[in-house]
Design goal:
binds (R)-mevalonate, 41% helix, alpha+beta, globular, 4-stranded antiparallel sheet, 325 residues
């Protein structure tokens, strides 16, 4: 049997700072214990063969010289471009079979594309027995994400690489781990899949129309991130909730919230959450709420009553790791 290597990387949730991070402000992102797993082995010929059952791809075949083909289904493009960037970096060219498995559906907005990219780079590095460090994994993965989707701060790539909770500045200019105690967080899924590049472009349009106002909003979000970091470290959950509410108001003024997100956020606050906000690009995907332990079940019920799905996720998950060599 040929040698197989499996690596995995976690998904993420944005605590504070989405969108403003694309314009150079910091953000705070936390890794979630929902992982993407990537297994690599030799294909025995000159092709890359990708299976990704969760996105209905079975044995997609690409010639190694032709990697990153625009026509590849979205579900495999990140893997294919990751392999291409890795091969270019190491100047290698071998046929591979890659299988991806996911603990979570891509519709949740947990960053499956970044996680699968990071896990692919890690699995490849183990496969060729090279000692790639986390900074190199970040750089190759971030390049891959930009090659495929054109936009992105890289915060989701950083969460997949380092795990835990991270204070992050675009492109990895700053990646600092924040130590804190377990967060009383609730995650509610709206049932609607959002498209990050579309929402990033919407904010770019907003910025073009009123640069002065948008800069003011980004400055305020930047201050919330700094205060949020302090509240997180000190375990001041009431304060964190208030900051989430403020961050949500600013995101709403940028036009990236949605009626579904607003309904779940309002319901959780009425049920007693300290605060709540959307998490990620907006437009759908997930919201998060901070809540006192005794009110957790009332807030969860309130979210469900409004049509949301409460997701059971643990946070501060471990970053990319080898599962099997
Ligand atoms: C999307 O989850 C978060 C954004 O800030 C985009 C990014 O940072 O890449 C909207």
């Amino acid at each position: 049997m040929s040698r197989q290597v499996t690596a995995s990387a976690p998904g993420k949730l944005m605590l504070f700072g989405e969108h403003a991070v694309v314009y150079g402000k910091p953000c705070i992102v936390v890794a979630v214990d929902q992982r993407m797993r990537v297994t690599v082995e030799s294909s025995g010929d000159g092709n890359l063969k990708i299976s990704a059952p969760e996105v209905n791809v079975a044995d997609y075949v690409e010639k190694i010289d032709n990697l990153g083909d625009d026509k590849a289904p979205k579900g495999v493009r990140f893997v294919s471009v990751a392999v291409k960037n890795f091969f270019n970096f190491y100047n290698i060219n071998i046929g591979l079979r890659v299988e991806t498995r996911s603990d979570f559906p891509s519709k949740y907005g947990f960053g499956s594309s970044s996680a699968v990219t990071v896990a692919t780079i890690k699995a490849l590095s183990q496969f060729i027995r090279s000692k790639v460090n986390n900074d190199q994994i970040f750089n190759l993965s971030y390049k891959t994400v930009l090659d495929v989707q054109g936009v992105g701060s890289g915060f989701d790539v950083a969460a997949a690489v380092w795990g835990g909770t991270i204070y992050f500045v675009k492109g990895g200019k700053m990646t600092e781990t924040i130590e804190h105690s377990v967060l009383p967080l609730i995650v509610g899924y709206t049932g609607i899949k959002a498209d990050t590049p579309t929402l990033v472009r919407r904010v770019a349009g907003f910025y073009r129309r009123d640069k002065k106002l948008t800069d003011k909003i980004f400055d305020s979000i930047g201050r919330i991130v700094e205060e949020g970091r302090d509240a997180l470290v000190k375990g001041k959950y009431k304060r964190l909730g208030l900051l989430m509410n403020k961050n949500q108001e600013l995101l709403q003024s940028l036009g990236v919230s949605s009626p579904e997100l607003n309904r779940l956020i309002k319901a959780s606050k009425v049920a007693g959450a300290y605060g709540a906000k959307l998490s990620g690009a907006g437009g759908g995907d997930c919201m998060i709420a901070i809540v006192a332990p005794e009110l957790r079940s009332s807030v969860e019920r309130a979210i469900e009553k409004e049509g949301g799905v409460v997701l059971d996720v643990a946070i501060q998950a471990e970053g990319v790791r080898t599962e099997k060599i």
